[in-house]
């Protein structure tokens, strides 16, 4: 089953596009996998999947494993990628990404 209504081929292409360490770019990834063009409701569903501990936030440890939400065989993000992703999404400076911050990243 596709993640948040995404096309499996698009997800595979997005994952292939960032297979090398330090090649992850969230803007390119969200566009390539099709999430950027999904409804606000689908983006919230994606957030809920990535928020594995159901805290209402995506923390650094969950971001590190971000790609594995799309495919179990995907790599973990490097520390550099994780910190850059967190910095891009954490607009209020609390060290984690809330649902509205995530939606802004995806639609960015």
UniProtKB/TrEMBL annotation:
Q: Which PROSITE patterns match?
A: EF_HAND_1, EF_HAND_2
Show the Pfam families listed in the entry. EF-hand_7
Keywords of the record: Calcium, Metal-binding, Muscle protein
Could you tell me which InterPro entries the record lists for this protein?
Answer: EF-hand-dom_pair, EF_Hand_1_Ca_BS, EF_hand_dom, Parvalbumin
Which intervals hold domain EF-hand? 38-73, 77-108
Q: Which family does it belong to?
A: Belongs to the parvalbumin family.
Q: What does this protein do?
A: In muscle, parvalbumin is thought to be involved in relaxation after contraction. It binds two calcium ions.
The name of this protein is Parvalbumin
Please tell me the species this chain comes from.
Answer: Characodon lateralis
């Amino acid at each position: 089953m596709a993640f948040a209504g995404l096309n499996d081929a698009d997800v595979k292409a997005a994952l292939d596009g960032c297979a090398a360490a330090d090649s992850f770019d969230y803007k390119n990834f969200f566009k390539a996998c099709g999430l950027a063009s999904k409804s606000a409701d689908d983006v919230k569903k994606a957030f809920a999947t990535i928020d594995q501990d159901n805290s209402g936030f995506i923390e650094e440890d969950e971001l590190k494993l971000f790609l594995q939400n799309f495919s179990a065989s995907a790599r973990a993000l490097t520390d550099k990628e994780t910190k850059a992703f967190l910095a891009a999404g954490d607009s209020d400076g609390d060290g984690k990404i809330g649902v509205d911050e995530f939606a802004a990243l995806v639609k960015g």
